[in-house]
C-alpha cells in the first residue's frame, strides 16, 4: 500500500468506528439530555482544535507542509476551536445567542475540515501530525454531524 492508500484506510476505519460508537453509545445518552447540554458535549472535542496549529511547526511535520494547506488548516482549526469555546460558554450560560453561536461554530468548523480533507496530496508530509487527520478529524466530523442533526430537529422533538 502506498501512503495515500494507508491514509484513506486509516481515516475510513476511524470514521466508521467513531460513527458506530456515536450511534450505539453517545447518541442514546445525548438524547436524554437537554438540547443545550447535548450540544455542549458535542462541542467539547472541538475546544481542543488548537492542536491543528502543529501544522505550522517544523520538526513535527515530516517536511514543511505547503502553505496552501498548513496556514488554512492551522488557523481554521484555531478559529473553530475558539468558536467552540464561545459556543460552550453560551450554552452553559444560557445566552440568548447560544444556538446561533453553535450554528456558526458548526458551519465554520465543518468547512475547515472539508477544506483540509480535499488536500490529500499533503498526507505524506504529515509526519508526527499524521494522527490529527486519521484519528481526530473523523471524531470532529461525526460530532459536527450529530450537532447539525440536533439543531435541525423540529422544536417539538427537542428536550
Radius of gyration: 16 Å
**Class per helix and strand makeup:** mainly alpha
In round numbers, the mean pLDDT is 96
Task: Report the CATH topology name.
Answer: Four Helix Bundle (Hemerythrin (Met), subunit A)
Contiguous helical run count: 5
What is the CATH first-level class name? Mainly Alpha
Q: How many structural units, i.e. domains?
A: 1
Q: Topology as H/E string?
A: HHHHH
Strand content: under 5%
Shape: globular
Structure write-up:
The structure is a single chain. The chain has 159 residues and is mainly alpha-helical. The protein has one domain: Four Helix Bundle (Hemerythrin (Met), subunit A). 67% of the residues lie in helices and 0% in strands. The chain has 5 helices and no strands. The protein has helices spanning 3-31, 35-43, 67-93, 98-117, 131-152. Helix 1 (3-31) packs parallel to helix 5 (131-152), helix 2 packs antiparallel against helix 3 (67-93) and helix 2 (35-43) runs antiparallel to helix 5. The radius of gyration is 16 Å and the shape is globular. The mean pLDDT is 96.
Amino acid at each position: 500500500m502506498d501512503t495515500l492508500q494507508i491514509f484513506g484506510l486509516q481515516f475510513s476505519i476511524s470514521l466508521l468506528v467513531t460513527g458506530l460508537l456515536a450511534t450505539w453509545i453517545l447518541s442514546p445518552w445525548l438524547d436524554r439530555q437537554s438540547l443545550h447540554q447535548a450540544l455542549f458535549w458535542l462541542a467539547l472535542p472541538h475546544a481542543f482544535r488548537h492542536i491543528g496549529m502543529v501544522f505550522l511547526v517544523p520538526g513535527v511535520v515530516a517536511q514543511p507542509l505547503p502553505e496552501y494547506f498548513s496556514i488554512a488548516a492551522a488557523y481554521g482549526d484555531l478559529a473553530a476551536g475558539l468558536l467552540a469555546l464561545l459556543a460552550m460558554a453560551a450554552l452553559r450560560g444560557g445566552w440568548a445567542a447560544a444556538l446561533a453561536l453553535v450554528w456558526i461554530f458548526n458551519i465554520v468548523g465543518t468547512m475547515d475540515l472539508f477544506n483540509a480533507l480535499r488536500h490529500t496530496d499533503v498526507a505524506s508530509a504529515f509526519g508526527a501530525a499524521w494522527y490529527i487527520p486519521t484519528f481526530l478529524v473523523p471524531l470532529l466530523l461525526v460530532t459536527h454531524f450529530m450537532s447539525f442533526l440536533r439543531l435541525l430537529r423540529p422544536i417539538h422533538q427537542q428536550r
